Amino acid sequence: MSNPIDTLLANNRAWAEQMCEQDPDYFARLSRQQNPDYLWIGCSDSRVPANQIIDLPPGEVFVHRNVANLLHHTDMNALSVVQFAVDMLKVKHIMVVGHYGCGGVKAAVTGGECGIVDYWLHSVRELYNHHRESLDHLARDERIDRMCELNVKAQVNSLCRTKILQRAWQRGDPIAVHGWVYGLKDGLVKDLNCTVTGLSQVETLYRIDRLQPSS
C-alpha cells in the first residue's frame, strides 16, 4: 500500500519538473519578489482555491483563509495579513469571498455541537439572529446561501472599520474592498455589489476621523 504522503511528495516533484520544462525561469522569477495587486480573504474550504477561481498564477494573489471567511477585530493573524498586504505590498483590491453551502455558516444557522469552532462562529450566529425574521420563510439551503451573502457583506463592513484600511484611505492609497460569493455548483463568482473604495463610505460611528482634536 502506497504512503499518501509519499504520493504527495512525488506529485510535487513531477509538478516542479513539468513547470521547469515549460518555463526554465519560472521558479527563479517567482522567488525574486511578490508584488500582488490582490488580497483574497476566503474560506478554508478545500473546494475554493483562490488562484484557480480567478485564473491568476502564483505571486499575483495574497491569500488569507479561515472558517467562514471571517474578519474579527481580535484576530491578530487576519489583521497582520491585512496590514502587510495594505502597508507593505500596497494591494489595490481586497476581495472578501464566501461560498454557497459554506459549512461554517451552516453550523451557525442550524445549530448543534461543533466544538471550539462554535466560539469562532459566534458572530455569524448573531448575524443570523439579527436577520432571522426575514430568513425563516426560506427553505434551509436557501436560508444558508442567503446567510453566506449576508456574512460576506458583514465582513466587508468589519474590514472597512479597521484602522488599517482607514489610515490607508487617509493617505490616499487606492484600495477597493469587494464582497463576492463563489458557487461550488457552477464555478462562478457573484459580485454582491457592496464595494467600498474610501473612508466616506464607512459609517460615521466607526470612522477614525469622526472625533475632532480637543483645543
TrEMBL record:
Matches recorded under SUPFAM superfamilies: beta-carbonic anhydrase, cab
Q: Which UniProt keywords apply?
A: Lyase, Metal-binding, Zinc
Kindly give the SMART domains that the UniProt entry links to this protein.
Pro_CA
User: Matching InterPro entries, A to Z?
Assistant: Carbonic_anhydrase, Carbonic_anhydrase_CS, Carbonic_anhydrase_sf
Note the CDD domains from the entry: beta_CA_cladeA (cd00883)
By its UniProt entry, which NCBIfam families does this protein fall under?
PRK10437.1 (NF007756)
**Tell me, what does this protein do in biology?**
Reversible hydration of carbon dioxide.
Query: What is this protein's name?
Result: Carbonic anhydrase
Q: Which gene encodes it?
A: can
